[in-house]
Specification:
5 helices; 94 residues; mainly alpha
């Protein structure tokens, strides 16, 4: 009796290939969009700090160092909650 393998049929091979491609594309799209989002936030914050540097020449470089030191992906994600934006600390920064 011939032994049949699970992946001997073409439709199963195609299904497996499509599943692998879907996973690969999903993961790559996630990483690319995360990287674009992170760069956009970094550019926005850089512009804000540059404006502060131009208006306050003494405090500007120190503030720039503090922002770059504390800028991490985890802290950016924490600021996305609506109630965090309404905290007194965030209102004072505005």
């Amino acid at each position: 009796m011939k032994r049949r393998y699970f992946f001997s049929r073409v439709d199963r091979q195609v299904a497996l290939l499509l599943g692998a491609m879907l996973i690969l594309f999903s993961v790559s799209i996630y990483f690319v969009s995360t990287r674009i989002y992170y760069r956009a936030i970094l550019e926005s914050l850089t512009g804000r700090v540059d404006n502060i540097q131009q208006s306050e020449t003494r405090k500007g470089p120190l503030l720039w160092q503090q922002v770059m030191h504390s800028l991490t992906k985890i802290r950016i994600r924490r600021l996305q909650i609506h109630r965090d934006v309404q905290m007194n600390r965030c209102i004072r920064i505005r």
